[in-house]
Amino acid sequence: MKAVVWHSEGDIRLDTVADPTILEPTDAIVQITRSAICGTDLHMVRGTMAGMEEGTILGHEAVGVVMEVGAAVRGFSPGDRVIVCSTMSCGTCAMCRQGNTAQCDRANPNGPAAGTAFFGGPSTTGSINGLQAEYARVPWASHTLIPIPENVSDDSAILLSDIFPTSWFGAELAGVRRGDTVAVFGAGIVGQLAIASAYRQGAGRVFAVDGIETRLAQALAQNAEVIDFNREDPVAVLQELTFGAGVDAVIDAVGVDSQRPKSGPAAEAAEQNAEAFAAEVAQVAPGAQPHGDLWVPGDAPSQASQWAVESVAKAGRIGIIGVYPPQLTSYPIGQAMNKNLTIRMGNCNHRAVTPPLIDLVASGLFDPTAFITQQIEIPSAIDAYESFDRREEGWVKTVIDVS
Ligand SMILES: NC(=O)c1ccc[n+]([C@@H]2O[C@H](COP(=O)([O-])OP(=O)(O)OC[C@H]3O[C@@H](n4cnc5c(N)ncnc54)[C@H](O)[C@@H]3O)[C@@H](O)[C@H]2O)c1
Ligand SMILES: [Zn+2]
Ligand SMILES: [Zn+2]
């Protein structure tokens, strides 16, 4: 079968590989009909999420059709249309039973202390082959798969595999309440759906911060109040718009490939911090292999964290869903402590968060297809990665039609 395979930092290829087979009685084989490219995949190719094993199939977002189930899989049979949750979970351990499905005690082959197991990630997450492929082996299938209602199309379901639940979870982590002022840092697809989620969870005003104009235009179309960090100082503007109070809640939808402003009033302060940022880049991406303007790690891993802590109100709340690798140790802890902040974070508990969101989509109350900017087929996958990495205009969310 065809699959997008990680070879090394800066080297991914569309390879022909062996079809997956059932290895454990809890596995299922799914024929993928739609997959997608995520900002998380960029971390792996840029080298800001270290520890990938050569030969790992990339991708952790998919919908498809069950082909085969292992002897211990109940609840699904061949022919069922399914969402594959990005993170795997057993459904019966103590973590799963509390809804912390991204911390399942059984799913990560490295053992219960190893944390999240997800498709197409580094060795610490299990090196489990990913979903940018024609077929996939889905471990712990009984709980990692979710059936798709008949009236929901594959295109409507694909953002339920990772993005919509993650964004919703981000607003929950930030404790968004009725009337809150909320700042969303990052206007990629996760930030876009975080804006949508924050409004649906009751936010009064939502501000979106990014440095890419077209992404901010997409946020504006959702009625977010946009701030371009290359033109304005986001902390100063958020203070001004809240009459000095700061925002009640912040959602960090940026992650480790955070950029610092290159122009505008915030650029000078960031420039003064350039050495510290460079040390962070060396810490998180020792193996980075940029090719010209391709696969370049973000130049300021803690920039969004700093702005989040500076712009939130005293006793405010921050929800972090942007991905940061274990190697990154810098966070403005002192400033956060002295403002009495509540900071919650993590990999989305997909299996626990997703079911009610399927109802929102099935009922027509929320249309995720409006957020898909590119539809490609698998032979164009590497070109699509490159366009997405380069931030070419309009490349926000690419869905891969594998059917
Ligand atoms: N926690 C989870 O379970 C989970 C799931 C999916 C994605 N993610 C993470 O969410 C993040 C966003 O994913 P995406 O697909 O939208 O990625 P993306 O790369 O398309 O979007 C990131 C956006 O952040 C912007 N940005 C960079 N520096 C910034 C700064 N200092 N301030 C504000 N904005 C800044 C970029 O311009 C870009 O638009 C990634 O880190 C991804 O790994 C987490
Ligand atoms: Zn993703
Ligand atoms: Zn579990």
Describe the structure in brief.
The chain is of the alpha/beta class. The chain has helices at residues 39-46, 94-97, 141-144, 154-157, 163-173, 189-200, 213-220, 234-241, 267-272, 274-284, 303-311, 333-338, 350-362, 381-389; strands spanning 2-8, 11-16, 28-37, 56-57, 62-69, 81-84, 135-138, 145-147, 181-185, 205-210, 225-228, 247-252, 312-320, 342-345, 374-377, 398-401.
Features:
403 residues, alpha/beta, Quinone Oxidoreductase, Chain A, domain 1, Rossmann fold, 2 domains, 6-stranded parallel beta sheet, 14 helices, 16 strands, 28% helix, globular, binds nicotinamide-adenine-dinucleotide, binds zinc ion
Describe the structure.
The protein has 403 residues and is α/β, with parallel strands linked by helices. Helices cover 28% and strands 21% of the residues. Strands 3, 5, 6, 7, 8, 15 and 16 form a seven-stranded mixed β-sheet that branches. Strand 10 (205-210), helix 7 and strand 11 (225-228) form a beta-alpha-beta unit. It starts with a strand and ends with a strand. The model has no long low-confidence stretch (mean pLDDT 98). Bound molecules: nicotinamide-adenine-dinucleotide and zinc ion (2 copies). The site of one zinc ion has 8 residues, from helix 2.
